[in-house]
């Protein structure tokens, strides 16, 4: 049986799980009360349950249904998280117990990075080796230029631009940002390159659909001494 392992950052079932979540991020060090309170404020400001876990669960279910419909095969889709359960080791044990014979490891970030994509794949290899499982693994490293992804982001950009007053359409400036700065540029060349390519692809497609939308895809990173 084939299976896909979707890997993402975290899935918090409750705001009460912030303490173990941040303790895991800090590699076993308990966060200070100030840090924890700041985290609570951030999550409360969202106004809904943690969206990352909910969205990932819906994506996994939708992907499994789509694969079964298109291929006629039973292809299981599993989820694993970096900083909350289910962790990679327990998910891999379940995958092996279910009789999976070929595994596709899919980080949910389309941008390749050593601390993200590469680290996720490494955890899978370590977990399989730890239990002596010899399952072939196909590692999906980046998919930032997948046409459907570019179209989805471009559609969001066009929708946001359309919402502006018509008098401001020609004045619009679009800033492409990443989740966090990648650290030293020299150590994160792949991430910066992929992000630049994605920004340009989205800008080109959005500009083609909105003639008056002036977009220059420029990615800036902080200077490091």
CATH class of the largest domain: Alpha Beta
- Spans of at least 5 consecutive residues with low confidence: 212-225
**Major sheet characteristics:** 4 strands, parallel
Q: State the end-to-end CA separation.
A: 50 Å
- Beta content comes to 5-15%
CATH topology of the largest domain: Rossmann fold
**CATH architecture call of the largest domain:** 3-Layer(aba) Sandwich
Number of DSSP helical runs: 7
Q: How helical, in percent, are the residues?
A: 40-55%
Run of helices and strands: EHHHEHEHEHH
Number of E-state strands? 4
Strand order of the largest sheet: 2-1-3-4
Shape: globular
Structural class: alpha/beta
Radius of gyration: 20 Å
Instruction: Average the pLDDT over all residues and give the rounded result.
Output: 88
Number of domains: 2
Folded structure, characterized:
The protein has 225 residues and is α/β, with parallel strands linked by helices. It folds into 2 domains: 2-139, Rossmann fold (3-Layer(aba) Sandwich), CATH 3.40.50; 147-209, no CATH class. It is 48% helix and 10% strand. The chain has 7 helices and 4 strands, in the order βαααβαβαβαα. It has a 4-stranded parallel β-sheet with strand order 2-1-3-4, sandwiched between helices. The termini are far apart. Mean pLDDT is 88; it is low at 212-225. InterPro entries: Ferrochelatase. This is Ferrochelatase. Belongs to the ferrochelatase family. It holds the Pfam family Ferrochelatase. One of its GO terms (biological process) is heme biosynthetic process.
């Amino acid at each position: 049986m084939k299976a896909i392992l979707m890997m993402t950052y975290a899935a918090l079932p409750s705001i009460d799980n912030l303490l173990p979540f941040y303790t895991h991020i800090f590699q076993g060090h308990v966060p200070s009360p100030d840090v924890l309170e700041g985290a609570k404020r951030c999550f409360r400001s969202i106004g809904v349950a943690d969206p990352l876990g909910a969205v990932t669960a819906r994506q996994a279910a939708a992907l499994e249904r789509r694969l079964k419909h298109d291929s006629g095969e039973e292809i299981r889709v599993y989820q694993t998280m970096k900083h909350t359960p289910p962790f990679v080791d327990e998910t891999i044990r379940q995958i092996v117990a279910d009789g999976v014979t070929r595994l596709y490891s899919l980080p949910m970030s389309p941008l390749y990075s050593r601390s993200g994509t590469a680290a996720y794949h490494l955890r899978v290899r370590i977990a399989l080796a730890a239990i002596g499982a010899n399952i072939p693994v196909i590692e999906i490293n980046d998919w930032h230029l997948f046409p459907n992804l570019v179209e989805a982001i471009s559609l969001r950009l066009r929708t946001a631009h359309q919402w502006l007053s018509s008098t401001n359409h020609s004045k619009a400036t679009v800033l492409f940002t990443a989740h966090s700065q990648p650290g030293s540029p020299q150590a994160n060349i792949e991430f910066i390159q992929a992000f630049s390519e994605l920004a340009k692809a989205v800008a080109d497609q959005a500009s083609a659909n909105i003639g008056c939308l002036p977009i220059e895809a420029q990615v800036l990173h902080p200077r490091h001494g």
